[in-house]
Structures are given as structure tokens and as C-alpha cells.
Design goal:
Layout (H helix, E strand, L loop, with lengths): L7 E5 L4 H12 L3 E6 L2 H11 L3 E5 L5 H14 L5 E4 L14 H29 L2 E6 L12 H19 L4 E8 L5 H4 L4 H8 L10 H12 L10 E4 L7
Parallel strand pairs: 1-2, 1-4, 2-3, 4-5, 5-6, 6-7
GO molecular function, one term: oxidoreductase activity
GO biological process, one term: bile acid metabolic process
Keywords: Oxidoreductase
Length: 244
């Protein structure tokens, strides 16, 4: 229960969904965590539930100024961050025919540019400490094709992870990407496409969706010192889908 004891983490998009699961896991393992999100109600509620080891900071991840504020607030509350989980992201299931330029630029800013800004903001602090772990949440669609906009940005996160790892690893900063497949979250199990997704799950080699905690266990491993020799790598958790 102390795999992250004494460590300070920032989790973007941490107020709900998979981000909230990562936050809970980190707290269970002894970390102090700063949750960032635009969802103030959800973020404040989760911080209140988890207690003194958690702070919520409202953040637009596409804003460099907001990133500077998050670093300041993290250092003020807990000290310099050891871990950054670039979790915030959106999906958009539109064809090229239907997607507007504004749609495309929005998903690029949130899914791709925000990851660059997060790495750029946290790297100087981690450089000074001589250590750090940055975990970029991509997708199985960062390895294989999918919807326009979503797929390209998730491929970009994979590439940025490798580029950043080459520059930052000599400074003691590790950078890795996580590539989840179909995760059993309320968005999946309660949405309009629930029957379609259930049917699709039958064709996953492991014949089921992943549980959110399974993804968080992988993120925890990358945040901890147990993954001390892993950097610039893709960690796939998709039940075998991309092996097909």
C-alpha cells in the first residue's frame, strides 16, 4: 500500500472516469495528488472524499498559463511533482465528411497540444529534482486506425512520448505511454451504443472489456520506482485487440 509513499502526482482530467480511478489508486498507494479538470463540481467532490492528500485545481489543459498555475499550486500544497499523468482527452466519432476544421482543431488541442504543454511545464521541476515519471494516456487507436482526429492525436501522443523520452531520460525523467482498449466505464455501459459494444466485446481475444482498475494498476506501475528502467515505451492494455 506504499508504492508511491512520499511522491507527489498531478492527474489531468482526474475528476471523473478513468482519471478518477487513477487518483484513487495513487492515494491508496501513499501519494499526494493534485486533480485537474474543468469539472469543478466533480473535482471538488472527489478531493473532499479523499481527504488531505488531495487537492483540486481547475485547469484548461490547452492553456500554458493554466499549466504554470497548476505547477505553482502543486508545489504550494505538497512540493514539487514527481509524477504527471496526462489523462485529459476527448473522443469525437465523426467522418472526415462531417468533421469541421473547428472540430478537428479542438481535439488536437485537447488530446495532443495539452500533452506537450504538460511535459514542458513539469520537466524543469523534475530536472531540478533529478527524477520524474510522465505517463501519457494514449489509446489502442494510437497503434491502429480509428476515427479521424482521435486516431491521429493518439498516434501523436505516442510519438511525442518517444521524442520527450529521448531528451529527458538522461535527466532522470521517464516518459511512457499507455494504450487502453475498451474499458468498462459508465460512458460505455450506459450509453446509446451499449449493445453494440457488448457484441464487439465478444470478439476481443480475452472476451471481455477491461475494468478501470486494471488500467490504473498499469499506470501505477509506471508511476512507481518498479518501472525504473522503462522509458519511451508503449504499454498496451487492450485484451489482445491490436495483436489481431
Amino acid at each position: 500500500m506504499n508504492r508511491l509513499k512520499g511522491k507527489v502526482a498531478i492527474v489531468t482530467g482526474g475528476a471523473q472516469g478513468m482519471g478518477a480511478t487513477h487518483v484513487r489508486k495513487f492515494v491508496e498507494e501513499g501519494a499526494n495528488v493534485v486533480i485537474t479538470d474543468l469539472n469543478e463540481e466533480g473535482g471538488m467532490k472527489l478531493a473532499e472524499e479523499l481527504g488531505a492528500s488531495v487537492r483540486f485545481v481547475r485547469q484548461d489543459v490547452t492553456s500554458a498559463a493554466d499549466w504554470e498555475s497548476v505547477i505553482r499550486e502543486t508545489e504550494k500544497a505538497f512540493g514539487p511533482p514527481d509524477i504527471l499523468v496526462n489523462n485529459a482527452g476527448i473522443s469525437m466519432s465523426k467522418s472526415i465528411f462531417d468533421m469541421t476544421e473547428a472540430d478537428y482543431r479542438k481535439i488536437v488541442d485537447i488530446n495532443q497540444v495539452s500533452v506537450f504543454l504538460g511535459i514542458k511545464a513539469v520537466a524543469p521541476v523534475m530536472k531540478e529534482a533529478g527524477r520524474g515519471s510522465i505517463i501519457n494516456i494514449s489509446s489502442m487507436n494510437g497503434l491502429v486506425g480509428g476515427a479521424p482526429g482521435y486516431t491521429d492525436t493518439k498516434f501523436a501522443v505516442r510519438g511525442l512520448t518517444k521524442a520527450a523520452a529521448l531528451q529527458l531520460s538522461p535527466l532522470g525523467i521517464r516518459v511512457n505511454s499507455v494504450h487502453p482498449g475498451v474499458i468498462e466505464t459508465p460512458m460505455v455501459t450506459q450509453g446509446d451504443a451499449v449493445e453494440t459494444i457488448k457484441e464487439f466485446s465478444k470478439h476481443i481475444p480475452m472476451r471481455r472489456m477491461a475494468q478501470p482498475e486494471e488500467v490504473s494498476d498499469l499506470v501505477l506501475f509506471l508511476a512507481s520506482d518498479e518501472s525504473g528502467y522503462s522509458t519511451g515505451s508503449e504499454f498496451v492494455i487492450d485484451g489482445g485487440l491490436t495483436a489481431m
